[in-house]
Amino acid sequence: MEFFEDWPRYVDVAINWSDRLLDGLWTTIQLTIYGGLLAFVVAAVLGLIAGSPRIWLRVPARIIIELFRGVSLVVLLFWLMFVLPQIWMRADGLPFEGLVYNTFLLGVMALGINYGAYGAEAVRASMTTVPQAQWEATTALSMSWPHKMRRVIFPQAWALMLPSLTNLWVHLLKGSAIAYIMPFVSDFTAELNQLRRPTDIWFSHAFIGLVVYFILALVITLFMQALETRAKNRLGRGPSLREILSPAPKPVTTGGAR
Amino acid sequence: MVDDEEVQGSPFWDWEFALEAFPQMFMAFLEVTLLVTVVGTLIAAVLGLIIAILIMVLPKPLAWIVRWATNFIRMTPIVVQLIFMFWAFLWMDALTIGIIVFGVHYATYMSEVYRAGIESVPKGQWEATTALSMSAARTWRKVVIPQALRSTVPSLGNYAISMFKDTPFLLVIGVAEMVTVAGQIGAPTFRYTEVYTIAGVLFLAASYPTAVLVNRLEKRLAYAH
Known about the structure:
The structure holds two protein chains of two kinds.
Chain A: H1 2-5, H2 7-16, H3 18-50, H4 55-70, H5 73-90, H6 97-100, H7 103-129, H8 132-140, H9 145-175, H10 188-199, H11 202-234, H12 241-245
Chain B: H1 4-9, H2 15-57, H3 60-74, H4 78-88, H5 94-119, H6 123-131, H7 136-150, H8 153-166, H9 178-186, H10 193-224
Helix pairs in contact in B: 2-3, 2-5, 2-8, 2-9, 2-10, 3-5, 4-5, 5-7, 5-8, 8-10, 9-10
Family (chain A): Belongs to the binding-protein-dependent transport system permease family.
Protein name (chain A): Polar amino acid transport system permease protein
Transmembrane segments (chain A): 31-51, 63-87, 99-118, 157-182, 202-224
C-alpha cells in the first residue's frame, strides 16, 4: 500500500513532468491528425480507383491496398525507417534527403498508408452501396465524372462511410502509440515510459495514460458523429446539428433532398 | 549512426544473408506469433461471448459498468495496455501477459459482433421459448446462441487476422516475436532490408489467403441465410 502513502509525492512528480507529458500529448495529437488526413487522402484515391470499372486501374489499386493492409503496421514502420533511407544512402543527390531521416514524418506516413489502405475498402464499399439508380440518373443527365462524384455519389457515400472512418481513426490513434519505439519522436506513451524511471510508479501513470487515450478516442468519436449527423442532414435525413444542440429543439421536419 | 561508405559498398539485397535469417525468423513466427494469435483468438471468442451475454442479462447499472469497461479497453491502445499489464504483473511471463492482453482486447471487439448476432435472432424465437416455458439458461444455450453464432464466424476470422498483424506490438514488452527477432538479426551488421522484407512477406503470405477464405465463408453464410 505504499502507493497510497506516497501519493502526495507522486502528484509533485507528475506536476514537475507535466510539461513533458503535454509535449508528448501534443506529438500524439499531431501524429493522429496528420496521419488521419494522409490516411483519408490515400483511402479516397485508392478507394475510387479500386472501384473503377476499368480493370487496368482496378488491379494495381487492389494490389497496393492488399500490400499496405497485409503487412503489419510495425513492419511498414520499420521498413520506412530502416530500409527506405538505404536507397538514399546508396545513390547520392536524390531529392527529399532530409525527409527520409525525419522519423516523425515516417511515422505519419506509416500510419497514413496502413490505415489509408483499410479506409480504401470502406470508401469502395460505400461507393457500391449508393443505389444503382443514382448512378444511372447521373448518366441520364450526362454529368461529367467529377460533377457526378461531387454532387451526387460522394455526398451519399460519405454518410455511409463515416462510421467505418470513425473506427479507423480511433484505430489510428491507438496505433500511433507504437511511435513510442521510434527514435527522435517522443509521443505520449514514450513520455509516460520516461516518467516511470524517476517515480517508480509506473502502475498509476500507465493508467492515467490509458484514460488520456480514452478521452482522445471519445473526442474523435464525438467529432465524427457530428460530421455524420451533418452529412445525413444534408441528404435530408435526420435533424441538423444546430437543431440537436439547441436547448429547445424545434420540431423536426423531414424534408426532401436539397 | 552508420558508415555511409560501408553501406554503399554492400549490396542492397543479400540472398545469402536472407537465407541465413529466414529459419530463425520462421521459428519465431511459429513459436510466438502464431501461438499468440491462436490462443488470443480463442480467449477473444469465448470472453467476447461472455461479455455480450453479461451486458444483456445483468441488471442495468452493472451492465452499464461492463459496457463502459469494454469501451474503455476497446478505445485505448494495445501498446499502452501491454506496458501497463507488464509493469502491473512483473512476476508474470511477458508472453503470457501478451496473450492475455491480446485476448481481452479483441474480446471487446468480439462482444460487439456477438451483440449484433444476438440482436439479429428474431423476436419470435424468444417468444417461442417463453411459450415453451424454457428456462433462461436453456433458451440461451439451445436457441439463441446457436443462431447468433452462425453469422459471427467470419468476423472472428477477420479479427484473428487483425490480431495476427498486431502481434509485433509485443516488442514493447520484449517478447521475441518475429519482428523483434528480425531486428536482432539485422542489428549487428545494420542489414535490415532482408529481415524486414521477409517479415512483411511472411505477414502477407499468412494473412492474405486467410482473408480470402474468410471472405468466401462470409459469402457462403450470407447465401445460406
